[in-house]
Design brief:
single chain; 182 residues; mainly alpha; two-stranded antiparallel sheet; 4 strands; globular
């Protein structure tokens, strides 16, 4: 699925309103909402036509692992697993915990998202690669200084983009003039 770039986005860029300095300690609400849609489109819905889909197990695994990792009883409010994850992504104040949740969601996407049966039964709309590309685009669009990269045999992880003056030829920061790196 192609990334939709509408008139307002193009106009902001033309007027120079696009962020030119990366931030690492704040997440705009718009990015949070976009991430929720991306994760949901890649993992699918946990219930469809009154039946549990394979996505339910994926969401439950994400929630169980994050809850244990953060030492919490519950991540957020919600009745369905994807609602709980969505509420966490919308409300979590700790940027690193939010990034952990996105990273683990991406790992889950990569584990299940290319399986044809899973995609059909869960009604997943994005492949893992499309979802990660979209997330990276949104990070860049909002001036958030992180990106996901897949290093050979290692899982998807966060990376800070290279500093100004560094050359990069791959990823969402390829060909970009970067500033704000430390």
């Amino acid at each position: 699925m192609a990334i939709l770039e509408l008139f307002s986005t193009r106009r902001k860029r033309e007027r120079g309103e696009a962020p030119d300095v990366f931030v690492y300690d704040a997440l705009p609400r718009e990015l949070r909402v976009q991430a929720i849609y991306i994760v949901h489109d890649a993992l699918g819905q946990s219930f469809a036509h009154g039946l549990t889909t394979p996505a339910n197990a994926a969401y439950v695994e994400i929630l169980e692992q994050l809850t244990r990792h953060f030492g919490r009883n519950r991540l957020a409010a919600g009745d369905l697993p994807e609602q709980i994850l969505a509420n966490f992504l919308l409300q979590e104040p700790d940027v690193e915990h939010w990034l952990d949740a996105i990273e683990f969601s991406c790992r889950m996407m990569q584990a299940v998202g290319n399986n044809w049966d899973y995609k059909q039964r869960a009604d997943a709309k994005l492949t893992p690669d499309e979802a990660i590309a979209d997330l990276n685009h949104r990070f860049l669009q909002h001036g958030v200084g992180y990106q996901y990269v897949l290093w050979q045999d290692r899982p998807v992880r966060f990376s800070v983009p290279p500093c100004e003056g560094c050359e990069t030829s791959t990823g969402p920061f390829a060909g970009q003039t970067l500033s704000g790196c430390e």
